[in-house]
Here is the input.
Amino acid sequence: MITANCQGCCRRLAASLLMLLLVCLSPAGRCWAQDTDTLGVDIDVQGLLTASATYVTVSELPNAVNYLPAPPDSTDALFTTDFVQWQWGKSLRGTTRGNQASRESQYGLNRWAIILSALLKVSMSSTRTPKILKLIYHVGETASRSTQLAKLTYQRRRPFEVMGEHPWGQYDREEELRGNGSFPSAHSAYGWGVALVMAEMFPHLQDTILRRAFEYGEGRVIVGAHWQSDVEAARLTAATAVARMHREPVFMSEFEEARNEYYTVLGITPPDIADTGLPLGARILNHPVDSASNCYLADVAQYWQAKSERGTLRGDQAAADALCTSTDDLLETFATATGNVFTEELTPALYDVVRLSRDSLLKAAQQLRDTWPVRKRPWQQVGEPRMVPDTDSIHSAASAYPSFQGTVGWGVALLMAEIMADKQDVILKRGYELGRSQEIMGDEYASDVLAGRTLACAVVARLHAQPEFAQAIIRARYEYEVDPLYTPVGEVRARSIDEPNQWFTIDGKRLPAEPAEPGIYIHGGTKVVR
Here is the structure.
Protein backbone atom coordinates (compact mmCIF):
# COMPACT_ATOMS: atom_id res chain seq x y z
CA MET A 1 0.00 0.00 0.00
CA ILE A 2 1.21 3.50 -0.78
CA THR A 3 0.99 5.84 2.18
CA ALA A 4 1.78 9.43 1.24
CA ASN A 5 -0.08 12.63 1.83
CA CYS A 6 2.29 15.23 0.41
CA GLN A 7 0.64 16.99 -2.50
CA GLY A 8 3.92 18.59 -3.61
CA CYS A 9 5.69 15.33 -4.50
CA CYS A 10 3.91 14.43 -7.72
CA ARG A 11 6.74 15.46 -10.05
CA ARG A 12 9.43 13.73 -7.98
CA LEU A 13 7.29 10.59 -7.95
CA ALA A 14 6.78 10.79 -11.69
CA ALA A 15 10.53 11.11 -12.30
CA SER A 16 11.21 8.10 -10.10
CA LEU A 17 8.56 6.09 -11.89
CA LEU A 18 10.06 6.87 -15.27
CA MET A 19 13.44 5.58 -14.14
CA LEU A 20 11.84 2.44 -12.78
CA LEU A 21 9.94 1.88 -15.98
CA LEU A 22 13.14 1.71 -17.98
CA VAL A 23 13.97 -1.62 -16.40
CA CYS A 24 10.64 -3.24 -15.55
CA LEU A 25 8.33 -3.22 -18.55
CA SER A 26 6.40 -6.11 -20.06
CA PRO A 27 3.57 -6.52 -22.60
CA ALA A 28 1.30 -8.39 -20.17
CA GLY A 29 -2.41 -7.82 -19.76
CA ARG A 30 -3.34 -7.35 -23.42
CA CYS A 31 -5.72 -9.17 -25.70
CA TRP A 32 -6.37 -8.84 -29.42
CA ALA A 33 -8.10 -10.46 -32.33
CA GLN A 34 -6.11 -11.97 -35.17
CA ASP A 35 -5.97 -9.85 -38.30
CA THR A 36 -7.83 -11.25 -41.29
CA ASP A 37 -6.13 -9.83 -44.35
CA THR A 38 -7.09 -12.40 -46.96
CA LEU A 39 -9.95 -10.73 -48.80
CA GLY A 40 -8.91 -8.56 -51.71
CA VAL A 41 -10.84 -5.40 -52.53
CA ASP A 42 -11.34 -3.48 -55.74
CA ILE A 43 -11.78 0.20 -54.95
CA ASP A 44 -11.90 3.12 -57.32
CA VAL A 45 -11.28 5.94 -54.88
CA GLN A 46 -11.64 8.57 -57.57
CA GLY A 47 -15.15 7.34 -58.20
CA LEU A 48 -16.04 8.15 -54.62
CA LEU A 49 -14.81 11.74 -54.71
CA THR A 50 -17.47 14.44 -54.62
CA ALA A 51 -17.36 18.18 -54.07
CA SER A 52 -16.27 17.42 -50.52
CA ALA A 53 -14.64 14.37 -48.96
CA THR A 54 -16.43 15.05 -45.68
CA TYR A 55 -19.97 15.42 -44.38
CA VAL A 56 -19.00 18.35 -42.18
CA THR A 57 -16.31 21.00 -42.63
CA VAL A 58 -13.51 21.48 -40.12
CA SER A 59 -14.99 24.79 -39.01
CA GLU A 60 -18.31 23.08 -38.22
CA LEU A 61 -16.76 20.22 -36.26
CA PRO A 62 -16.13 20.51 -32.52
CA ASN A 63 -12.68 21.98 -31.86
CA ALA A 64 -10.66 19.62 -29.65
CA VAL A 65 -8.50 22.54 -28.49
CA ASN A 66 -11.56 23.83 -26.65
CA TYR A 67 -12.72 20.65 -24.93
CA LEU A 68 -9.62 18.47 -24.44
CA PRO A 69 -6.51 19.31 -22.40
CA ALA A 70 -3.22 19.87 -24.21
CA PRO A 71 -1.05 16.78 -24.75
CA PRO A 72 1.45 16.06 -21.96
CA ASP A 73 5.09 16.94 -22.49
CA SER A 74 8.03 14.90 -21.31
CA THR A 75 8.28 16.77 -17.97
CA ASP A 76 4.66 16.12 -17.06
CA ALA A 77 3.55 13.27 -14.80
CA LEU A 78 0.87 12.50 -17.37
CA PHE A 79 3.62 11.58 -19.84
CA THR A 80 4.27 8.44 -17.79
CA THR A 81 1.46 6.58 -19.57
CA ASP A 82 2.82 7.59 -22.96
CA PHE A 83 6.27 6.35 -22.02
CA VAL A 84 4.94 3.03 -20.68
CA GLN A 85 2.90 2.41 -23.79
CA TRP A 86 5.74 3.33 -26.11
CA GLN A 87 7.85 0.64 -24.45
CA TRP A 88 4.95 -1.82 -24.62
CA GLY A 89 4.43 -1.18 -28.29
CA LYS A 90 8.10 -1.49 -29.12
CA SER A 91 8.25 -4.87 -27.37
CA LEU A 92 5.63 -6.25 -29.80
CA ARG A 93 7.39 -5.38 -33.04
CA GLY A 94 8.11 -8.55 -34.97
CA THR A 95 5.35 -10.51 -33.22
CA THR A 96 2.00 -11.51 -34.71
CA ARG A 97 0.40 -8.49 -33.07
CA GLY A 98 3.18 -6.22 -34.25
CA ASN A 99 2.84 -7.44 -37.82
CA GLN A 100 -0.88 -6.69 -37.68
CA ALA A 101 -0.06 -3.16 -36.55
CA SER A 102 2.42 -2.78 -39.38
CA ARG A 103 -0.19 -3.77 -41.98
CA GLU A 104 -2.70 -1.43 -40.38
CA SER A 105 -0.36 1.51 -40.75
CA GLN A 106 -2.20 1.78 -44.06
CA TYR A 107 -4.49 4.76 -43.64
CA GLY A 108 -8.01 5.04 -44.87
CA LEU A 109 -10.54 3.43 -47.14
CA ASN A 110 -8.55 0.55 -48.59
CA ARG A 111 -7.52 -0.82 -45.22
CA TRP A 112 -11.00 -0.43 -43.74
CA ALA A 113 -12.57 -2.09 -46.76
CA ILE A 114 -10.31 -5.09 -46.06
CA ILE A 115 -11.14 -5.13 -42.35
CA LEU A 116 -14.88 -4.77 -42.86
CA SER A 117 -15.01 -7.25 -45.74
CA ALA A 118 -13.80 -9.87 -43.28
CA LEU A 119 -16.05 -8.80 -40.41
CA LEU A 120 -19.21 -8.35 -42.51
CA LYS A 121 -18.57 -11.45 -44.64
CA VAL A 122 -18.91 -9.59 -47.92
CA SER A 123 -16.16 -8.84 -50.43
CA MET A 124 -16.41 -5.12 -51.11
CA SER A 125 -15.75 -3.53 -54.47
CA SER A 126 -16.57 -0.33 -56.30
CA THR A 127 -19.13 -2.17 -58.40
CA ARG A 128 -20.64 -4.48 -55.78
CA THR A 129 -20.82 -2.23 -52.69
CA PRO A 130 -20.34 1.37 -53.88
CA LYS A 131 -22.69 2.86 -51.31
CA ILE A 132 -20.96 1.18 -48.36
CA LEU A 133 -17.55 2.27 -49.61
CA LYS A 134 -18.78 5.81 -50.15
CA LEU A 135 -20.09 5.95 -46.57
CA ILE A 136 -16.84 4.55 -45.13
CA TYR A 137 -14.80 7.06 -47.10
CA HIS A 138 -16.78 10.13 -46.10
CA VAL A 139 -17.24 9.08 -42.46
CA GLY A 140 -13.56 8.27 -42.07
CA GLU A 141 -12.37 11.49 -43.64
CA THR A 142 -14.78 13.55 -41.52
CA ALA A 143 -13.58 11.82 -38.35
CA SER A 144 -9.98 12.32 -39.43
CA ARG A 145 -10.58 16.07 -39.88
CA SER A 146 -11.76 16.29 -36.27
CA THR A 147 -8.09 16.18 -35.25
CA GLN A 148 -6.90 18.91 -37.59
CA LEU A 149 -7.14 22.06 -35.45
CA ALA A 150 -5.51 20.41 -32.44
CA LYS A 151 -2.72 19.03 -34.64
CA LEU A 152 -1.98 22.50 -35.99
CA THR A 153 -2.19 24.08 -32.54
CA TYR A 154 0.12 21.73 -30.64
CA GLN A 155 2.48 20.42 -33.35
CA ARG A 156 3.48 17.55 -31.06
CA ARG A 157 6.48 15.48 -32.08
CA ARG A 158 5.92 11.80 -32.73
CA PRO A 159 7.53 9.00 -30.69
CA PHE A 160 9.96 7.93 -33.41
CA GLU A 161 11.19 11.54 -33.66
CA VAL A 162 11.61 11.97 -29.90
CA MET A 163 13.24 8.54 -29.42
CA GLY A 164 15.59 8.81 -32.40
CA GLU A 165 13.97 5.96 -34.36
CA HIS A 166 12.15 5.43 -37.63
CA PRO A 167 8.45 4.54 -37.96
CA TRP A 168 8.04 0.77 -38.05
CA GLY A 169 4.78 0.52 -40.02
CA GLN A 170 5.18 -0.76 -43.56
CA TYR A 171 2.90 1.95 -44.99
CA ASP A 172 4.29 4.84 -42.92
CA ARG A 173 6.33 7.40 -44.82
CA GLU A 174 8.72 9.13 -42.46
CA GLU A 175 9.03 12.27 -44.57
CA GLU A 176 5.23 12.71 -44.44
CA LEU A 177 4.95 12.09 -40.70
CA ARG A 178 7.76 14.41 -39.61
CA GLY A 179 6.38 17.85 -38.91
CA ASN A 180 2.80 16.54 -39.05
CA GLY A 181 1.45 16.98 -35.52
CA SER A 182 1.08 13.80 -33.51
CA PHE A 183 -1.85 14.86 -31.28
CA PRO A 184 -4.53 13.64 -31.88
CA SER A 185 -3.99 10.69 -34.23
CA ALA A 186 -5.94 11.23 -37.48
CA HIS A 187 -5.25 7.60 -38.39
CA SER A 188 -6.93 6.36 -35.19
CA ALA A 189 -9.80 8.84 -35.56
CA TYR A 190 -10.52 7.54 -39.05
CA GLY A 191 -10.86 3.96 -37.81
CA TRP A 192 -12.82 4.75 -34.65
CA GLY A 193 -15.25 7.01 -36.53
CA VAL A 194 -15.92 4.35 -39.18
CA ALA A 195 -16.34 1.70 -36.48
CA LEU A 196 -18.87 3.77 -34.51
CA VAL A 197 -21.01 4.23 -37.62
CA MET A 198 -20.70 0.57 -38.62
CA ALA A 199 -21.56 -0.50 -35.06
CA GLU A 200 -24.69 1.62 -35.31
CA MET A 201 -25.54 0.05 -38.66
CA PHE A 202 -24.83 -3.52 -37.52
CA PRO A 203 -25.54 -3.73 -33.76
CA HIS A 204 -25.24 -7.52 -33.80
CA LEU A 205 -21.54 -7.06 -34.69
CA GLN A 206 -20.91 -3.95 -32.59
CA ASP A 207 -18.37 -5.44 -30.18
CA THR A 208 -16.30 -7.10 -32.91
CA ILE A 209 -16.22 -3.99 -35.09
CA LEU A 210 -15.30 -1.68 -32.23
CA ARG A 211 -12.60 -4.02 -30.94
CA ARG A 212 -10.93 -4.00 -34.35
CA ALA A 213 -10.99 -0.22 -34.42
CA PHE A 214 -9.58 -0.15 -30.90
CA GLU A 215 -6.68 -2.31 -32.11
CA TYR A 216 -6.28 -0.17 -35.22
CA GLY A 217 -5.52 2.77 -32.92
CA GLU A 218 -3.24 0.72 -30.69
CA GLY A 219 -1.26 -0.17 -33.77
CA ARG A 220 -0.12 3.43 -34.10
CA VAL A 221 1.57 3.13 -30.70
CA ILE A 222 3.20 -0.19 -31.64
CA VAL A 223 4.79 1.21 -34.81
CA GLY A 224 6.02 4.33 -33.02
CA ALA A 225 3.94 6.77 -35.05
CA HIS A 226 1.84 8.02 -32.12
CA TRP A 227 1.82 8.31 -28.36
CA GLN A 228 -0.93 6.60 -26.39
CA SER A 229 -2.51 9.95 -25.50
CA ASP A 230 -2.70 10.79 -29.22
CA VAL A 231 -4.77 7.67 -29.82
CA GLU A 232 -7.00 8.18 -26.79
CA ALA A 233 -7.74 11.77 -27.81
CA ALA A 234 -8.49 10.62 -31.36
CA ARG A 235 -11.22 8.23 -30.17
CA LEU A 236 -12.92 11.12 -28.40
CA THR A 237 -12.63 13.55 -31.31
CA ALA A 238 -13.92 10.91 -33.73
CA ALA A 239 -16.97 10.36 -31.51
CA THR A 240 -17.69 14.09 -31.54
CA ALA A 241 -17.44 14.10 -35.34
CA VAL A 242 -19.92 11.22 -35.58
CA ALA A 243 -22.27 13.12 -33.27
CA ARG A 244 -22.05 16.17 -35.54
CA MET A 245 -22.60 14.04 -38.67
CA HIS A 246 -25.94 12.87 -37.31
CA ARG A 247 -27.26 16.38 -37.90
CA GLU A 248 -26.55 16.15 -41.63
CA PRO A 249 -29.35 14.90 -43.93
CA VAL A 250 -26.80 13.68 -46.50
CA PHE A 251 -25.12 11.46 -43.91
CA MET A 252 -28.42 10.06 -42.68
CA SER A 253 -29.53 9.33 -46.26
CA GLU A 254 -26.26 7.66 -47.28
CA PHE A 255 -26.28 5.65 -44.05
CA GLU A 256 -29.63 4.10 -44.96
CA GLU A 257 -28.58 3.51 -48.57
CA ALA A 258 -25.43 1.69 -47.45
CA ARG A 259 -27.36 -0.42 -44.95
CA ASN A 260 -29.93 -1.45 -47.56
CA GLU A 261 -27.18 -2.22 -50.08
CA TYR A 262 -25.48 -4.61 -47.64
CA TYR A 263 -28.57 -6.72 -47.02
CA THR A 264 -29.50 -6.64 -50.71
CA VAL A 265 -26.06 -7.93 -51.71
CA LEU A 266 -26.27 -10.75 -49.16
CA GLY A 267 -29.92 -11.42 -49.96
CA ILE A 268 -30.90 -11.63 -46.29
CA THR A 269 -33.31 -9.84 -43.96
CA PRO A 270 -31.83 -7.44 -41.41
CA PRO A 271 -31.78 -8.97 -37.91
CA ASP A 272 -34.00 -7.52 -35.22
CA ILE A 273 -31.85 -5.07 -33.27
CA ALA A 274 -33.93 -5.84 -30.20
CA ASP A 275 -32.03 -9.12 -30.08
CA THR A 276 -28.76 -7.25 -29.46
CA GLY A 277 -28.00 -5.64 -26.12
CA LEU A 278 -25.70 -2.85 -25.12
CA PRO A 279 -22.01 -3.04 -26.08
CA LEU A 280 -19.99 -5.36 -23.86
CA GLY A 281 -17.03 -3.32 -22.75
CA ALA A 282 -15.04 -6.43 -21.83
CA ARG A 283 -15.03 -7.42 -25.52
CA ILE A 284 -13.96 -3.97 -26.73
CA LEU A 285 -11.51 -2.60 -24.16
CA ASN A 286 -8.33 -3.98 -22.61
CA HIS A 287 -8.25 -5.46 -19.13
CA PRO A 288 -8.41 -2.98 -16.24
CA VAL A 289 -5.06 -1.94 -14.81
CA ASP A 290 -4.05 -3.78 -11.67
CA SER A 291 -1.23 -3.15 -9.21
CA ALA A 292 0.98 -5.78 -10.87
CA SER A 293 0.87 -3.92 -14.19
CA ASN A 294 3.39 -1.33 -15.27
CA CYS A 295 0.47 0.88 -16.29
CA TYR A 296 -0.46 1.09 -12.62
CA LEU A 297 2.63 3.23 -12.08
CA ALA A 298 1.26 5.63 -14.67
CA ASP A 299 -2.10 5.69 -12.88
CA VAL A 300 -0.35 6.54 -9.61
CA ALA A 301 1.64 9.35 -11.21
CA GLN A 302 -1.55 10.83 -12.63
CA TYR A 303 -3.26 10.43 -9.26
CA TRP A 304 -0.70 12.69 -7.60
CA GLN A 305 -0.95 15.17 -10.45
CA ALA A 306 -4.73 15.36 -10.08
CA LYS A 307 -4.56 15.51 -6.28
CA SER A 308 -2.53 18.72 -6.47
CA GLU A 309 -5.65 20.49 -7.79
CA ARG A 310 -7.56 20.00 -4.55
CA GLY A 311 -8.07 23.24 -2.69
CA THR A 312 -8.25 25.22 -5.94
CA LEU A 313 -11.35 26.44 -7.75
CA ARG A 314 -11.07 23.39 -9.99
CA GLY A 315 -10.94 21.21 -6.91
CA ASP A 316 -14.11 22.82 -5.60
CA GLN A 317 -15.79 22.08 -8.92
CA ALA A 318 -14.65 18.46 -8.64
CA ALA A 319 -16.29 18.17 -5.21
CA ALA A 320 -19.54 19.53 -6.65
CA ASP A 321 -19.29 17.16 -9.63
CA ALA A 322 -19.05 14.20 -7.26
CA LEU A 323 -22.68 14.86 -6.34
CA CYS A 324 -23.81 15.15 -9.98
CA THR A 325 -25.48 11.76 -10.31
CA SER A 326 -29.16 12.14 -11.25
CA THR A 327 -30.78 13.26 -14.50
CA ASP A 328 -31.72 16.56 -12.87
CA ASP A 329 -28.12 17.06 -11.74
CA LEU A 330 -26.81 16.42 -15.23
CA LEU A 331 -29.27 18.86 -16.78
CA GLU A 332 -28.29 21.50 -14.24
CA THR A 333 -24.54 21.19 -14.77
CA PHE A 334 -24.85 21.37 -18.56
CA ALA A 335 -27.33 24.24 -18.26
CA THR A 336 -24.83 26.19 -16.16
CA ALA A 337 -22.10 25.54 -18.71
CA THR A 338 -24.18 26.67 -21.68
CA GLY A 339 -26.15 29.52 -20.11
CA ASN A 340 -29.45 27.78 -20.77
CA VAL A 341 -32.28 26.59 -18.55
CA PHE A 342 -32.93 22.85 -18.67
CA THR A 343 -35.56 21.21 -16.47
CA GLU A 344 -38.05 18.39 -16.82
CA GLU A 345 -40.88 20.92 -16.98
CA LEU A 346 -39.32 23.39 -19.44
CA THR A 347 -37.37 20.96 -21.63
CA PRO A 348 -39.17 17.60 -21.42
CA ALA A 349 -37.75 16.23 -24.69
CA LEU A 350 -34.17 16.94 -23.63
CA TYR A 351 -34.93 15.48 -20.21
CA ASP A 352 -36.06 12.24 -21.87
CA VAL A 353 -32.84 11.99 -23.91
CA VAL A 354 -30.66 12.53 -20.84
CA ARG A 355 -32.71 10.14 -18.71
CA LEU A 356 -32.74 7.34 -21.30
CA SER A 357 -29.06 7.70 -22.17
CA ARG A 358 -28.00 7.91 -18.51
CA ASP A 359 -29.80 4.67 -17.75
CA SER A 360 -28.15 2.85 -20.68
CA LEU A 361 -24.71 4.28 -19.93
CA LEU A 362 -24.90 3.19 -16.30
CA LYS A 363 -26.12 -0.26 -17.29
CA ALA A 364 -23.25 -0.78 -19.74
CA ALA A 365 -20.74 0.48 -17.16
CA GLN A 366 -22.16 -1.88 -14.53
CA GLN A 367 -21.90 -4.81 -16.96
CA LEU A 368 -18.24 -4.03 -17.49
CA ARG A 369 -17.66 -3.50 -13.77
CA ASP A 370 -19.19 -6.90 -12.98
CA THR A 371 -16.83 -8.62 -15.41
CA TRP A 372 -13.67 -8.02 -13.37
CA PRO A 373 -12.66 -8.27 -9.71
CA VAL A 374 -13.22 -5.12 -7.67
CA ARG A 375 -10.53 -2.53 -8.25
CA LYS A 376 -9.74 -0.44 -5.18
CA ARG A 377 -10.28 3.27 -5.50
CA PRO A 378 -7.24 5.56 -5.26
CA TRP A 379 -8.22 6.99 -1.86
CA GLN A 380 -8.50 3.44 -0.53
CA GLN A 381 -5.21 2.36 -2.09
CA VAL A 382 -3.25 5.23 -0.54
CA GLY A 383 -5.04 5.05 2.81
CA GLU A 384 -6.80 8.41 2.73
CA PRO A 385 -10.34 9.40 3.71
CA ARG A 386 -12.76 10.09 0.88
CA MET A 387 -13.38 13.77 0.17
CA VAL A 388 -17.16 13.24 0.24
CA PRO A 389 -17.51 11.11 3.39
CA ASP A 390 -21.32 10.83 3.39
CA THR A 391 -21.15 8.18 0.64
CA ASP A 392 -18.08 6.29 1.87
CA SER A 393 -19.93 3.03 2.41
CA ILE A 394 -21.26 2.99 -1.16
CA HIS A 395 -17.96 3.81 -2.84
CA SER A 396 -15.71 1.61 -0.72
CA ALA A 397 -17.52 -1.51 -1.85
CA ALA A 398 -17.78 -0.55 -5.54
CA SER A 399 -15.04 -1.02 -8.10
CA ALA A 400 -13.31 2.00 -9.58
CA TYR A 401 -13.34 0.42 -13.06
CA PRO A 402 -14.88 1.75 -15.17
CA SER A 403 -15.74 5.24 -13.98
CA PHE A 404 -19.50 5.70 -13.89
CA GLN A 405 -19.07 9.48 -13.96
CA GLY A 406 -16.67 9.28 -16.88
CA THR A 407 -19.10 7.06 -18.79
CA VAL A 408 -22.22 9.11 -18.15
CA GLY A 409 -20.57 12.52 -18.43
CA TRP A 410 -19.03 11.86 -21.84
CA GLY A 411 -21.99 9.93 -23.24
CA VAL A 412 -24.53 12.59 -22.31
CA ALA A 413 -22.20 15.29 -23.64
CA LEU A 414 -21.99 13.60 -27.06
CA LEU A 415 -25.78 13.52 -27.33
CA MET A 416 -26.28 17.07 -26.09
CA ALA A 417 -23.60 18.31 -28.50
CA GLU A 418 -25.54 16.70 -31.32
CA ILE A 419 -28.73 18.44 -30.19
CA MET A 420 -27.11 21.83 -29.55
CA ALA A 421 -24.39 22.24 -32.18
CA ASP A 422 -23.99 25.93 -31.38
CA LYS A 423 -22.83 24.97 -27.86
CA GLN A 424 -20.97 21.78 -28.76
CA ASP A 425 -17.52 22.77 -27.49
CA VAL A 426 -18.65 23.93 -24.03
CA ILE A 427 -20.90 20.88 -23.68
CA LEU A 428 -18.07 18.50 -24.55
CA LYS A 429 -15.69 20.27 -22.20
CA ARG A 430 -18.17 19.94 -19.32
CA GLY A 431 -18.70 16.26 -20.13
CA TYR A 432 -14.95 15.66 -20.18
CA GLU A 433 -14.49 17.52 -16.89
CA LEU A 434 -17.08 15.37 -15.12
CA GLY A 435 -14.75 12.41 -15.56
CA ARG A 436 -11.63 14.39 -14.72
CA SER A 437 -13.25 15.45 -11.45
CA GLN A 438 -13.23 11.82 -10.34
CA GLU A 439 -9.46 11.78 -10.68
CA ILE A 440 -9.10 14.96 -8.66
CA MET A 441 -11.33 13.57 -5.93
CA GLY A 442 -9.32 10.34 -5.82
CA ASP A 443 -12.38 8.24 -6.58
CA GLU A 444 -11.01 6.75 -9.79
CA TYR A 445 -7.74 6.45 -11.64
CA ALA A 446 -7.17 8.01 -15.03
CA SER A 447 -7.43 4.62 -16.75
CA ASP A 448 -10.84 4.04 -15.12
CA VAL A 449 -12.13 7.35 -16.46
CA LEU A 450 -10.66 6.72 -19.90
CA ALA A 451 -12.37 3.32 -20.07
CA GLY A 452 -15.66 4.97 -19.15
CA ARG A 453 -15.38 7.57 -21.90
CA THR A 454 -14.45 4.97 -24.52
CA LEU A 455 -17.34 2.75 -23.47
CA ALA A 456 -19.66 5.77 -23.69
CA CYS A 457 -18.79 6.21 -27.39
CA ALA A 458 -19.92 2.66 -28.03
CA VAL A 459 -23.14 3.03 -26.04
CA VAL A 460 -24.11 6.21 -27.89
CA ALA A 461 -23.66 4.38 -31.20
CA ARG A 462 -25.97 1.63 -29.96
CA LEU A 463 -28.58 4.15 -28.82
CA HIS A 464 -28.60 5.75 -32.27
CA ALA A 465 -29.48 2.35 -33.75
CA GLN A 466 -32.71 2.33 -31.75
CA PRO A 467 -35.49 4.05 -33.78
CA GLU A 468 -37.33 5.22 -30.66
CA PHE A 469 -34.21 6.89 -29.32
CA ALA A 470 -33.47 8.49 -32.68
CA GLN A 471 -36.93 10.04 -32.54
CA ALA A 472 -36.24 11.31 -29.03
CA ILE A 473 -33.15 13.09 -30.37
CA ILE A 474 -35.22 14.70 -33.13
CA ARG A 475 -37.81 15.91 -30.61
CA ALA A 476 -35.08 17.40 -28.42
CA ARG A 477 -33.52 19.20 -31.39
CA TYR A 478 -36.90 20.67 -32.33
CA GLU A 479 -37.48 21.71 -28.74
CA TYR A 480 -34.14 23.52 -28.63
CA GLU A 481 -34.03 25.02 -32.12
CA VAL A 482 -37.65 25.87 -32.92
CA ASP A 483 -39.75 26.30 -29.79
CA PRO A 484 -39.02 29.77 -28.31
CA LEU A 485 -39.59 28.46 -24.80
CA TYR A 486 -36.20 26.77 -24.95
CA THR A 487 -34.07 29.51 -26.49
CA PRO A 488 -31.07 30.73 -24.48
CA VAL A 489 -31.73 33.71 -22.23
CA GLY A 490 -28.17 35.01 -22.57
CA GLU A 491 -27.54 38.55 -21.40
CA VAL A 492 -31.20 39.07 -20.53
CA ARG A 493 -30.89 36.44 -17.81
CA ALA A 494 -27.85 38.18 -16.33
CA ARG A 495 -29.61 41.56 -16.37
CA SER A 496 -32.66 40.14 -14.64
CA ILE A 497 -30.47 38.69 -11.90
CA ASP A 498 -28.97 42.14 -11.32
CA GLU A 499 -32.47 43.64 -11.29
CA PRO A 500 -34.51 40.97 -9.49
CA ASN A 501 -37.71 43.05 -9.33
CA GLN A 502 -37.81 43.72 -13.06
CA TRP A 503 -39.59 41.68 -15.74
CA PHE A 504 -38.23 41.27 -19.28
CA THR A 505 -39.58 39.86 -22.53
CA ILE A 506 -37.78 36.86 -24.01
CA ASP A 507 -35.90 39.17 -26.40
CA GLY A 508 -34.72 41.53 -23.64
CA LYS A 509 -37.29 44.34 -23.50
CA ARG A 510 -37.80 45.70 -19.97
CA LEU A 511 -41.45 45.76 -18.84
CA PRO A 512 -42.83 48.51 -16.61
CA ALA A 513 -44.59 46.00 -14.35
CA GLU A 514 -45.36 42.33 -13.88
CA PRO A 515 -46.98 41.17 -17.13
CA ALA A 516 -50.68 40.33 -17.20
CA GLU A 517 -50.71 38.80 -20.68
CA PRO A 518 -49.90 35.08 -21.19
CA GLY A 519 -46.42 34.46 -22.55
CA ILE A 520 -42.79 33.65 -21.76
CA TYR A 521 -40.86 36.17 -19.68
CA ILE A 522 -37.52 36.52 -17.88
CA HIS A 523 -37.61 37.27 -14.16
CA GLY A 524 -34.90 36.76 -11.55
CA GLY A 525 -32.57 34.98 -13.98
CA THR A 526 -35.07 32.33 -15.10
CA LYS A 527 -37.78 31.88 -17.72
CA VAL A 528 -41.31 32.17 -16.45
CA VAL A 529 -44.39 30.96 -18.31
CA ARG A 530 -47.49 33.09 -17.60
